[in-house]
Amino acid sequence: MKVLFVSSGRKGRVSxxxxxxxxxxxxxxIDIHYFLIKPGIKNYxxxxxxxxxxxxxxxxDLIHAHYSLSGFAASLGGKYPVVVSLLxxxxxxxxxxxxxxxxxxxxxxxxTIVKTSRMLDVLYLKNAGVIPNGVNIERFKPLSKDTSxxxxxxxxxxxxxxxxxxxxxxxxxxxxxxxATINYLKRNDIELIPVFDIPNSEMPYYLNASDVLILTSxxxxxxxxxxxxxxxxxxxxxxxxxxxxxNTSGLKGCFVCESNPASLADGLLKAxxxxxxxxxxxxxxxxGLDSVxxxxxxxxxYKQILDK
Length: 308
Known about the structure:
Layout: E1 2-8, H1 16-27, E2 31-37, H2 41-57, E3 62-66, H3 68-76, E4 82-85, H4 95-107, E5 111-114, H5 117-123, E6 129-130, H6 145-151, E7 160-164, H7 175-185, E8 190-194, H8 203-209, E9 212-215, H9 224-231, E10 236-239, H10 244-248, E11 254-257, H11 261-274, H12 281-286, H13 291-307
Parallel strand pairs: 1-2, 1-3, 3-4, 4-5, 5-6, 7-8, 7-9, 9-10, 10-11
Helix pairs in contact: 1-13, 2-3, 6-8, 7-11
C-alpha cells in the first residue's frame, strides 16, 4: 500500500509527531511518502494542483493529510481517498475554519481522525474516530539519570531539572506560566530547561535526565510528550489539557493542576518527592498507546476505505 502523507512544513521538514507516525506505518509495511506545504494561503492554493499531479503520476493508493488546512488542500484536487488527522490546534481555530472542517469531514473526507474525545465535542464531529498518536516504546524507555545527564551536558549539576518540551516562543505553550511556577517556589536548586528543535532520538535523554516534565499549555490534543515521559517513568506536572488527565489518572508522580503558579508549584513539589521509580510505562501498553498498536488501527482504516 502506497500512502502520501500531506502536512505543513513550517521549518522545511516533517514535524517529529507526523514523522514518528509515518515511521511506525513504514515499519508495518506501508510505503509512506511526504509532501510538505509551506505556510501561507498562496502555498496552500498552489499545493492543490501539485498534490493532484503527484497522486496521479505516482500511483498512490490514498492520501493521509495532517491538520485541517492540509486536508482542505488534499481533497480539493480531485476524487481520491483522503484520510485527515486533526490535531489539537484544529479544535481552536476561528469559527469559519471549524465550520469548514465539519463540512469537509462530512462531505469530502473518507475518514476523519481526531486525537481526543474532547476534540469531538469541540468540533461537533460525530463521524470522526478517536486515535491518539502513539509512542515508540523502544525509543522512549527508562534510562540511567546519570548517563542521560551526561548526554545532555548536565552531568555536573546537582539541581533538580524540570523539562519544558516546547519552543518558549509558542504562546499557546505558555512558557511564562512555567517560568512563573519555578519563580513561585523561590528555590535555587531547580533548573527549568526548554527543549525544542532537537532530533526526536535525543528526547529520551532529556526526559530521563529530568526530575519532572512540566506542561503548561493553554490547549492541546493528545499530548505525545506526556506519553513519552510516561514511557520513561518520568513524573509529569500538567495543566488540564488534551488527554493528560485521562491518561495519567491514578499514576504515581503525575499531577494535573490548575493553570496558576501556586497549583503547579504544589504539583512539582509532590512530583519531586516521588522520584523516577514508577511503572507508568505499563499504562501506555495497557491503553494501546504504543506506536505499533496505533499503526495497526490506522492501517485498518486504510484497508476499510480501499475495500469500499
